[in-house]
Amino acid sequence: MGGLNLPQPPDPAHRARTGFSFARFAIPELAGRTGRAIYLDADMLVLKDIAELWSLPLGEAKAACQEELPEGIARTAPVPGARRRKQCSVMVLDCARLDWDAPAIISGLGPRYTYEQLMGDLCILAENEISYGVPTRWNSLEHADDTTCLLHYTDMMTQPWVYAGNPNGWLWSRELRDLVRAGDMEADFVRQEIAAGFVRPSMARELTLPLEGPLPADTIRAHLELDRKAGYRSHASLPATSGPARLAGRARRILKRLLGTA
Fold it and tell me: What DSSP designation does 254 have?
């Protein structure tokens, strides 16, 4: 999916929020407009057999996205007054029936629809072309229990690779630790990502821990302090005009106060 060189809308309000935001619309063409495809955001951890998602019935629909969020989940947004919105971060696509042209879709941002209408409502398809059949357990927003199939670390400022206080962060760290131990990822690569500022400095210490359950509060506080002393800023490469960057300071203060780490 890299190197697509997709255009960006001239209006900053409609530009991609991440480097892969618009890549999903190129999938049918990349797949030769045949078969099925699953689109997933990059900030997810798959915990159960993805065959269930792959075999999701589409019926007459061309794409399946998430069902309506239950009230309890919709109200768990980290910023007071905000609500989580249903999203298309997990989709099952019928590539044979989708005539998507990614540059043309991007050019419609502003003149024909907003970023939110495109990315949240999939407004480029008619209502009867969309199945809202992806269960919440396959896009579990910042929540993990025995039923969770896919954990989505959707709150950018508290993703476990940039923030030590994520209550489900140990699950991601455990997977990273196991990849390194198995030789499927080089430890030097992790160190390079830390040096580049893409991963918090405390991750190097975290990977030496047992990681078989949530970390103790004193360990989390020690990691937060380590990162603070190192001058680490999560997602420092984001433009200052981006939503996550504007909310960074506020979100950190709120979350640290809730966790008792202020």
Answer: H
> What are the backbone angles phi and psi of residue 133, rounded to the nearest 5°?
-105, 0
Q: What's the predicted TM-score (pTM) here?
A: 0.83
Identify whether the C-beta of residue 26 lies closer than 8 Å to the C-beta of residue 4: yes
The dihedral sign for the CA sequence 251, 255, 256, 258: positive
The answer to whether the CB of 77 falls within 8 A of the CB of 154 is: no
CB 158 within 8 A of CB 252: no
Q: Nearest CA to 63 among 88, 31, 41?
A: 88
Q: What is the pLDDT of residues 98-147, one digit of tens each?
A: 999 999 999 999 999 999 899 988 999 999 999 999 999 999 999 999 99
CA distances from 192 to 186, 199, 221 (A): 10, 9, 24
Instruction: Report helix, strand or coil for 132.
Output: strand
Q: What angle do CA 180, 184, 185 make, to 5 degrees?
A: 55
pLDDT in tens, 23-66: 999 999 999 999 999 999 999 999 999 999 999 999 999 999 98
166: CB partners within 8 A, 6+ apart: 142, 153, 158, 159, 160, 172
Cβ proximity of 82 and 157 under 8 Å: no
